[in-house]
Amino acid sequence: MTKPxxxxxxxxxxxxxxxxxxxxxxxxxxxxxxxxxxPALLKPDRETATDVYYTVTAQAGxxxxxxxxxxxxxxxxxxxxxxxxxxxxxxxxHVTLQNHLPELTTxxxxxxxxSGPYVDGGCHAPVYPGEEKHIDFTLxxxxxxxxxHAHPCPSTAEQVWHGLATMVLxxxxxxxxxxxxxEYGVDDIPxxxxxxxxxxxxQLDYHADYDPDGxxxxxxxxxxxxxxxFDVTTQKLRLRLLDGANRREWRLHFxxxxxxxxxxxxxxxxxxxxxxxxxxxxxxxxxxIVVDFKGRQPGDKVTLFADDxxxxxxxxxxxxxxNTALPEHLFTVSAPTVDPALPVRKVVMSGMDEQxxxxxxxxxxxxxxAKQPVGQAEYWDxxxxxxxxxxxxxxxxxxxxxFLVISRNxxxxxxxxxxxxxxxxxxxxxxxxxxxxxxxxGVYMYHCHIIEHEDGGMMAQIQTYEPGKPLxxxxxxxxxxxxxxxxxxxxxxxxxxxxxxxxxxxxMGMKM
Length: 512
Ligand SMILES: [Cu+2]
Description:
Distance between the termini: 56 Å
Pfam family, one: Cu-oxidase_2
Domain Plastocyanin-like: 59-173, 338-465
Organism: Lacticaseibacillus nasuensis JCM 17158
Structural class: mainly beta
Bound molecules: copper (II) ion
Number of domains: 3
GO molecular function: copper ion binding; oxidoreductase activity
CATH architecture of the largest domain: Sandwich
Protein name: Multicopper oxidase
Number of helices: 6
CATH superfamily of the largest domain: Cupredoxins -  blue copper proteins
């Protein structure tokens, strides 16, 4: 049987962000092309046969993004975004988290299965300016493209907008053994997809751009580069795509409808490669794709588009022929069994703008919304109650676990969501069934990953526990403590503080 080449974006067209009232279309860049920035690999401080030690520093800096004035940005071990971190599965990993920013932040490992709420780095794990903290963990999960980003409620969106996001590559022996492009920066390329608006003197102004349904800008910024090109020197290129935008959906395709093959989703390889000409990512989703430039000649150009706007140009140079076929089998999914007697857990994402809620409530850091025993697989039904027309796709993200997508409104999931994931776009009027099992006890957040929605309270948290053992007590943060700290750091009164999610709570008459 010949395998299909998929030619659609799978998601429901009436719910695309292009129909939003506040949609900001991308504009063709008016600045000269520049080489795509490839983040350096973060060097370990030291490494032994069993352990590896890193220091990750959140820092402020200036970045030459546009001609003229440099843009004030934040990053991890870099002025913007960050160095790429590599975590080998099985090694004991130690990370020193340093905060050199003028305000508190957290270090959230999006896609890593590490214990919550402290190592996970959500809102309960602030690192204050000038402080450093140490975390350590051992990963037991498949190779994947994950990422690190700030998650200090309710300022996650603004901190990510300033640049606090970088890729974290989980590596394992199985993935390394496959005939896939592996050479970082040569044929294995990270692509962090973001959009920004540049104000006077090329500066960001998050408050000016604020939209409770998600902040957008007209300029595509890829790995921190505007109008990038990449010099292709191999027949095959593996692109690790991350929707690192606060709100934007990326509908990606190449010039001449060049087909490409998706090999991995958020947190694992796909069982089998999926060939397609179009790919849509919702916020925080990842896809690894392999593009084959067979037949292209030196001097040719292949362009990656988002909708109808070019975002990266691939300039073809001479390459050695590489006609190795991609393996038909990439990964074995071992799905845990669900006890049919267990009830299906229901999660409802509702509203838009300031009205967004999860299960009819806004997030409260001090409230545990659900409990699930470690090791017990359960079905979770995630429903988006938005109307198809005028509604939006909400990307549902879970901390502390990888899930399988079982069905969409009772139908098969999309062909490219057959591996493990941590974020899934839910269409308006749709119920997506997930298979969820936690391996580690802790407190974990789950939320919409339109970051302004999460700051606006479209978030909840679950405590996972080991049956038969006493429930550990976790020190959970509260909004007042964080808000007072932000105000102090900014040298203003708490009453003068503006933060992204505040209006969403205030307009709904709810306390943060
Ligand atoms: Cu949302």
